[in-house]
Every structure is written in structure tokens, then in C-alpha cells.
Specification:
Layout lengths: L17 E2 L5 H11 L9 H6 L9 H15 L5 E8 L10 E10 L4 E9 L5 E9 L4
Antiparallel strand pairs: 1-3, 2-5, 3-4, 4-5
Length: about 140
């Protein structure tokens, strides 16, 4: 990874996008095991249908993890000062989650940049929005 330099960034600068493989049931099961979130709505089709859903769907925190990967592909983990998201819509099995980020603020006094974050599926539907505060090197 080439180090991100504060001086090289401007409002409107974009992060290199990241797209995950289409979500599979295996991905959901592996994430459930890794996260400890074994809510059956994410792994049991019969349970999901009884709850009124057509199928299982992704953990919201899995999409947040993909955004975390977007950030750490761009800047070292120690540069992340804040990271938050808002869940906008369900991410379904088969969705290929695309993650993007754009610099929305640059603070000369603190040497930080604020990044607007978004995940979308292959149809362009927004699934998560968020933001991060990053302190890239000078």
C-alpha cells in the first residue's frame, strides 16, 4: 500500500473502490461463526421465511466490515480516528457489495480528512452509508 499523504488529498478525492464477491450462504455462515452472531435470520432459510422474509440476508456488520476493508486498503488502521455507519437496506444473498469513499472535509489544523462512505449492490441500491475520520500522514 502506498501511504496516503494529507497534502495530496482534496475535498472530492475518492478512495479506490472495493467490490466483494457476491454474498453466498457460505459467507453468511462463516461470518456468523467469526462474529459470534448466530441469529438464525442470517443462516436458516426456514426461520427467515417464518419471519416474513423471502430468504436469509447478510448481517449489517458484514457490510460495515467491507467498508472497514475499503478504509484499511487505503490507509493504515492506526490512521482511523472515527468510523460509523447507518444501515439503509437489507443486503441479500447474491448481492455483490461495492464500497466507495470520498473526501468531504479536510482539516488543516488537525491533519484529518472526513470520508463519506457508501455500500451499494450491483443494481446501485444503497445498503449502508457512513463516514470515517482519517489522519493520513503528512
Amino acid at each position: 500500500m502506498n501511504p496516503v499523504r494529507f497534502e495530496a488529498l482534496e475535498v472530492g478525492s475518492t478512495l479506490p473502490s472495493f467490490t466483494a464477491e457476491p454474498l453466498s450462504r457460505l459467507t453468511l455462515a462463516l461470518y456468523a461463526g467469526a462474529s459470534g452472531d448466530h441469529n438464525p435470520i442470517h443462516v436458516d432459510t426456514d426461520f427467515a421465511r417464518r419471519a416474513g422474509m423471502p430468504d436469509v440476508f447478510a448481517h449489517g456488520m458484514l457490510s460495515m466490515a467491507y467498508l472497514g476493508r475499503l478504509l484499511t486498503n487505503w490507509a493504515p488502521q492506526h490512521a482511523i480516528r472515527e468510523f460509523s455507519v447507518r444501515f439503509a437496506a437489507i443486503t441479500h444473498v447474491g448481492d455483490a457489495v461495492s464500497c466507495t469513499g470520498v473526501v468531504t472535509e479536510k482539516d488543516e489544523a488537525t491533519g484529518t480528512v472526513r470520508i463519506a462512505l457508501t455500500t451499494r449492490n450491483q443494481q446501485g441500491d444503497i445498503k449502508l452509508t457512513g463516514e470515517a475520520l482519517i489522519a493520513p500522514g503528512r
